[in-house]
Amino acid sequence: MAGELPLLDVSAEPTPDRSRSPTVRVGAAVAIALAIGLGVWLFSSNNSSSSDTTTPRAKAVAVSARGLSDLAAQVHHPVYWAGPIAGTSYELTKTEDGRIYVRYLPDGVEVGDPRPVYTTVGTYPDANAYGALGTASTRAGAKAYKTRSGALVVTNTKTPTSVYFAFEGSPYLVEVFDPSASKALQLTLSGRITPIR
Known about the structure:
By secondary structure, the protein is of the alpha+beta class. The protein has one domain (12-195). Helix content is 23%, strand content 28%. It contains 4 helices and 11 strands; from the N terminus they run βαβαββββαββββαβ. It has helices at 26-43, 65-75, 129-136, 181-189, and strands spanning 12-14, 60-63, 80-81, 88-94, 100-106, 120-125, 142-147, 151-156, 162-167, 172-177, 194-195. The strands form 2 sheets. The protein has a 9-stranded antiparallel sheet with strand order 1-7-8-9-10-6-5-4-2, with helices on both faces. The chain has a two-stranded antiparallel ribbon with strand order 3-11. Strand 7 (142-147) and strand 8 form a beta hairpin. The chain is globular, with a radius of gyration of 16 Å. Mean pLDDT is 80; it is low at 1-27 and 40-55.
């Protein structure tokens, strides 16, 4: 399939540090998107969404694994997730500008919970994802990893709970958020972040 991307390789070497109800209120979804997606604007300074100061309206909905698979087929491009995680349900948010968030809610947490404290994987359209991430890797506080599969993975001490990756030639940037910075990085480098099938 034309838009399909390779999986991350489970082993990655760091590059040298260059330190230099099913629907919810729009407000809650915006809070979640801002908490998760704000860092993307730091990395994507050359695209149109980066100049926006507001997050596009979105509704969060409960979705099954089958529903996620149907969405991926419908949008005709990769949508990333961390696979099934025991004891969680899935929340899906799709913004008007094409950002797609898959959030993992522990049992008992309702869809639309406004707290940005749950593992979330975001897939963002960005024609220059790899280039923007390369630029981000040169900023102060950044640490970059190059995987054998060709993905560039970048973290930054300013936003340590979000880890970003992109493949050269792919128009998508992927963000892995977790309130634990080490878990976000481990999830990203473990090979678990894959396109939904």
